[in-house]
Amino acid sequence: MKTTGFRGIALGGLVAWVVCAGACSSDQSGLTGVAGTNGSSGRGGTGANGGDTGGIGATAGSGGAVAGSGGGGTAGTAGATAGSSGSGGGAGTGGTGGGAPVDEVEPNDSIATANDFAAIAVGGRVSAAIAAGDSDYFSVTVAAETTALYVTTFSSGVDITCASANTTLSLISADGTTVLAINTDISSKQLCSHISYVPAPGTYFVKVNGNSSTSVFRYVLAVRAEILPAGRPETEPNDDGTPEIGNGMGSFEGNDFSVANSHGSFGADTVITAALTPVGDEDVFAIRNDGATPAEIYLETFNGGFGACADGLDTQIRIRDVTGVVLAFDDDASNGRFCSFLPYVIPPTTTVYAHVIDFGDNTTAAAYSLHISFP
């Protein structure tokens, strides 16, 4: 079960996405100013979503009105007030080139000014922005019963390719100094960050910054806190019943996928204890979304407890549809950590299949656990 929280108050177990509220954007795109009226300069427009004030309008001739030149910012609205004298000046139009608003509250570039994550998490989904040399801090309160903490960055929504966000993610203790966990890249191609951690109750800080002093990007910060259910053993055979060593392809896709023998289906948080043995064994688990809205699941493999990847465990996870088509894939949960982490959004009333194999499909794994986390 999950506790109530990150979408609402003390960290509890639903996805929370950090989005920034209106006038507190760290990426304040300007808007076009108000037009001048009958010879006077126009007044700069103000952004509806935290944009910078637009530029001053050029002075018009007798009776002519010239709009002020605004900065970039598609989210901005037109200026609303005419020039300072005369009449007949029109409002300036919105600028172009900006992005959507963010919900972090700047300044939040230190422990002392950290945003309260639960207080600004709106609708379970939030975004933030990194300017050159910027760091963002968020405080997180973990309830006593919590046994698992996920902290993850995405480019936008669920973006497993991480097209634009190149983050370094740190989990810091209540003293504001001790770094408990840190991750730079999930992989060489996945430049967002992910931390899985077993927390004690109390306050933590999450720090997000770019991988270089010149990095500029938007990102989504997701935090989940959960009470892990008891593990349940897999049911074999949950492959085609005749496991064979890898298929010889460079991507090691496996060669024993089976819908008919899949274990499940699972429609809520689940921990499955399993093994990849004998050599060539593959495991398939059915995961369903019974709801009328999309459900974002996390799939992650561990060995040695939550957050651990012991004994050389090296897995791959694929999400496949009922025909076997690969919908999503992950190899490693982070650089140097060869367990797997894969977020995926299951459409409403849909079942998908998690296909877990040993990397290369040519060695055994005496034990591992697959964690399925629902929002």
Mean pLDDT: 77
Largest sheet: 5 strands, antiparallel
Query: What percentage of residues falls in helices of 4 or more residues?
Result: under 10%
Q: How large, in whole angstroms, is the Cα Rg? A: 25 Å
In whole angstroms, the N-to-C terminal distance is: 11 Å
Q: Tell me the β content.
A: 25-35%
> What structural class do the secondary elements suggest?
mainly beta
**In total, how many beta strands?**
20
User: Which ranges are low-confidence, i.e. pLDDT below 50, for 5 or more consecutive residues?
Assistant: 1-99
CATH class category name of the domain at 231-373:
Mainly Beta
CATH architecture of the domain at 231-373: Sandwich
List keywords for this structure.
20 strands, elongated, five-stranded mixed beta sheet, Jelly Rolls, disordered N terminus, mainly beta, five-stranded antiparallel beta sheet, 375 residues
Notes on the protein architecture:
There is one protein chain. The protein is mostly beta strands. Among the domains are: 115-226, Jelly Rolls (Sandwich), CATH 2.60.120.380; 231-373, Jelly Rolls. Helix content is 1%, strand content 32%. It has one helix and 20 strands. The protein has one helix at residues 117-120; strands at residues 16-17, 115-116, 128-130, 135-142, 148-154, 167-172, 179-183, 194-197, 202-210, 217-226, 231-233, 263-266, 270-276, 282-289, 295-302, 315-320, 326-330, 341-346, 350-358, 365-373. Strands 1, 3, 5, 8 and 10 form a five-stranded antiparallel β-sheet that branches. Strands 2-4-9-6-7 form a five-stranded mixed β-sheet. The termini are close together.
